[in-house]
Structures are given as structure tokens and as C-alpha cells.
Amino acid sequence: MIGVKERIENLRLQIKYHNEKYYDMDQPEIEDFEYDVLVNELKTLEALHPEFKELDSPTQQVGGTVKRELRKVRHDVPVISLQDVFSKEDVYAFVDKVKYQIPNPKFVVEMKIDGLSVMLRYREGKLAEGITRGNGEVGESVYENLLEIESIPKIIPTDSPYVEVRGEVYMSNDTFEMVRQRQEERGGKTYKTPRNLAAGSLRQLDPKIVRERKLDIFVFNLEVSENKDFSSHAESLRWLSSLGLSVIPDYKICSTADEIWECISIIGEERWKLPFGIDGAVVKVDNLEDRRELGSTSKVPRWAIAFKYPPEQKETVVEDIKIQIGRTGRLAPLALLTPVKLAGTTVSRASLHNQDYIDSKDIRIGDTVVIQKAGDIIPEVIRSIPEKRPVDAIKYIIPSTCPICNSPTVRDENGADVRCGGELCLAQLIRGITYFVSKDAMDIEGFGPSSVESLMSEEYIKSIADIYHLREYRNELIEKGIVGREKSVDNLLNAIDKSKENDLSQLITGFGIKNVGKQTARALTSSFADIDEISNATLDQLIDLPDFGMTVASSVLNFFSLDSTKVLINKLKEAGVNTKSKLQEDNIDNRFAGKTFVITGTLPNLKRDEAARLIQMHGGKVSGSVSKKTSYVLAGEEAGGKLTKAEELSVKIIDEQEFNNMLL
Fold first, then answer.
1. 133 marked among binding-site residues
2. Is the pTM value of this prediction over 0.70?
3. Which residue segments constitute the domains of the chain, with CATH numbers given?
4. 258-300, pLDDT tens digit by residue?
5. β partners of residue 318
6. Of 67, 112, 518, 642, which residue is the catalytic one?
């Protein structure tokens, strides 16, 4: 009995954690199917052991919490979830249960759109409010953001004084790919699925972001319509459509369990061809009076279910396992697969992560394996099928030497990753150049790790200086498509040209000198006029600088004494890269001198590194943690634990607007 109680408590903790990641942070860590397995196990154990039932169990609650930044709004009608089912038998059992109470019922089968549920409120025909589900009783107002969704009419032609509808805000697959690529180029937060990005966008505090990301909506239920009655769900959907609302498409009316299962099967077969994501099919009793008779439990209606499709799985063969060298020198094993159509796309490769992963699943070259897409996006190997294994298959071991430079490999201490130990390995050079172009250093927009690796592999870049000669190869780059087509190439070349005007502190940071970070680079460029003065600085001059000691000073001296550094500096000067300081003490504005900032959350307009750079340019320091020594916490959306810590310590909290005012 003690084991059961511990399992129940463990399941509750896991589910609460994943609820927060999914509903509140829009960053799920597990697939819906895995989450549903946890929830169903908890429900079963609680039903078998009612003595362990608790009111705060996630099985007794709906969805997520309400975000602190958005206005709270109480729902007129409680927003409850649907009962999830996972098999044909479950669907037939639901139909039989309904038919036991209702003679000759009709059912509506709909696609379950994978997005964020919202309630739209119309007063006298005008859109007056928009609310997320929240915890089912209280949601958060996203009205200003919903105004930016083109498919939501702001006025509907109705005499009903009050109408409330429920819909699902989503992002199309094409828009997701476009926004995801733009986010990667900007170095912004990335999302794994359209649902996560749609939910994250809708809950932004800046409506402009919603407009840019082209969200859409399907309305799937009429909640309230004052002075207007309907007899069926289908009738209400037709009315909503006549008002200009985008209602759930292709719904079907069925009479039997066989018809319902056929509709569910068709949706399952066609879902990969849809321009938007779905995560199941919904079966609802059509007649509204029948719904009232069937009623609801405290958590789910008895007149509807949601069928959840399991992740599509396919068998294929591991034709080979190759090693890729990541930008940090990590040896990443990659399975080359016999191409197979899976979840709407052709899959021919899947990451095997590390040696522990390969060993735990006993994956060998020649093996027949089962694959699926994590979150319907990322291919992964689920298991091997030993009974189909060739007799000569042998266990795969990640090599003990780097396949690029033949240096010995080293396994991470207390970790599973294996890395190249060679200092001159291509992978190590890639890492250095990747850091140089990153937002922490020269901030060359659109110059991500994959572009660096591709350009180095094709030998267009061998050192930092070569970056500034890429324009000479514009036509070749466009023709080969190494970093994209014409627009992508021109954007990258323009960003490289723009970086030539950066402050010297960014260049020094980008060199990746041992023990020299952004703060140290700023101290150097605040005290010396240009890179030549820094190169000729003495030990005594360096030790006298703020936050410098013997270790840092020695690192700077050693770097600038190298012949290779002198050659690099000359090449950068010839290429037109700025080597003069814009931060000399005579000209610097030190209004933040002696102040320490912590930046947390997503700011409406500034990237966090941009805010950090502004603070440092004005004499302030940026810390990663909140303490009694913190002067200000600059907080954006999803600020999390640092904001809580600041409140506990009575540290002043400011938003981006207040920060901008401090810079005026």
C-alpha cells in the first residue's frame, strides 16, 4: 500500500510539472501521448485507492495557472476538458453509454485542433473580450492580441446582446516554418511545434508580435447566445459561420459507432496532409437537450470524448551510423536510415544522441528499428528488433579518436557525451568562429552554427578574417546554396558588413581570449583608444584596470604577443573592421556605474544581450542571479523564479519601458 501511495504522489508531481511546462510556459518536454499515459495511470490508481484522493490532484484540475502579467478574467461558463480515449473499444463504449440514456442520438465528429483555447465575448455584436482557458474558472485576458488575428471578426451581424464562443488559436505549418527560421536567424527563443509557438505568441504582452506571426482560429463551440436558442451543435456552428466566424472545418454527423470510427480513422489518415496541426478527433453528442440530460462530472462532460492518436511509428533499417562533430567538439552519432514516409515527410536519418542511448536500445548497423517523430516533428529511434537482426551485426562503439583530426576523444566527466580533445580540430575552429559571430560577440544576424560549419567545410572560411571576404564569393554562394538562396546570402553579407562598425569591445570579446569576457573587454576598450594601444599595453597598465588581476592580464598579454594575432588584426583592418574604441573614459556615459542588473524573461523589443550591452556601455554590470547586491531586475514576460527572488529581497523591478526611460 505504501508503494501505491508513493507512486500516486510521484505521478502527481510529474503531471504538475508537465502541466506548467505545457500550459504556462508553452515548452512541453514530453509528447501528448506520453503525458496521457501518466494521467491515465494516475486516474486508475486514484479510482482503485480512493483513500489517497486529494483535491489538489491534477486529475481534479483543468489546464494551467494564470500568468502574473495578464489581467485575470472569470469565466461565465466553466471551461472543462474532455475525457481522453485511446482505442476503438473506448469509442464504442462511449457510444453505448450514451445510447443507454438517449434514444437514437446523433453525434458530431470534429478534428481536434492543436492550439490554445480561447473564449471570445461579443456584446451588442462587438468583440469585447478574449480569454484563455487558464484554470477553467479564471483565465487571462488576451483581448488586445486577439484583435490582431485577421480571421476573428471584430463585429458580427447579430441581434443577440451577448454571444460567447470557444475556439482554438493555432498557427499553420507554413507560418510556423517561416517564423521558426526567422527566430533562429535573430537568435531568439525557438519552439518545437506550431502549437507551442502559437500559444507563446498569443500570451506575449506586445500585440505586434501576434500580428507578425499570423495566428489563426477555428471556433468549435457556442457557449452563450442570449435571446437565441438552438436545438443542435451543428445548427449553432452553421449560425456562427453565417456571422463570419471561422468554424471547425469538415465536421461530420454520425448515427452509429461504426460511422464514428470510420470518421476518426479518415481524420487519422489525412492529418499529415493538413496545413495545420491536430492532436486528435472529438466526438460530441449533437442534440443540445441530450447534452443537458447527460450532464457533466466536475471535470469532464459526459456527452463528449477526445480520441488521441498515438504517434505514427514505422519500421526501417539502420544502413549506417556516422559521426558528426558538433560546434562544441561533441561526437554526435547519426543513424542513416532506409528512407520511409513518416508523419507526412520522408525520414532518412535520426540522432542516436550518445553511447549510452545506443547501448540502452542495443542499436546496431543493419538492425531493423522502429522510429517515430517526437512531438510529430523530430525523428527518433524507439527500439531495435533483435529478431530481424543480421547474423553479422556487431555493437556500435563511438570511436576513441576524432574522425576529422584523429585526436583522442574524451568522455565528459559525469556526462554521456564524447568530445574531440584536439585543439586544432575543425570542430574546435568551428566553435571559435561560431562564438565570434554570435550575439554575445559580433552579433552577425543570421550567421548560425550550421552556416559556419557549411562555409568552413567548403573552405570559404578558415579563420575569422575570411568572414569579411565572403562578399567576393557572392555568386558562388548563391549558386551552391550553402547558406540559402539569393535573399539569404544577401542578408548574411549585409549583416557581416554591418558588423564592421561594431564597437571594439565586441571584437575583443569575439576573439575568445581565455579569461576575457564581455565585462573585461569593455574595461579594455574603455581605457585604450584602439586595438594597437591594447596590443602594446604593459602588465602594469593592465593590472590597474577594473576587475583585472594577474591571471586576466597575463591572458591578454599572451594573446596579443602571438604572431598569429598580429596577422589577424592586420587582416581585419584591411577588411575595414573597426578597431577603434567608442568607449573611452573621456566620452563614456557612466550613469549605471556601481549598479548591478539582472535580466530575466522575454523583453517586448530588446534582445536580452542588447539590454546587457546597453547596461555595460553605461558603466553597469550584468549578473545571472539575484542577490542583495542586485540594484535592478529588468523583467519581461515569463520572468519566473528570478522575479520571485527579487520580490523576496525587495530588489527594485523594472520593465523595458522604465529601463528605456533611465537611458534618456
1. yes
2. no
3. 2-60 (1.10.287.610), 72-307 (3.30.470.30), 313-397 (2.40.50.140), 596-663 (3.40.50.10190)
4. 999 999 999 998 988 899 989 899 999 999 999 999 998 877 8
5. 337
6. 112
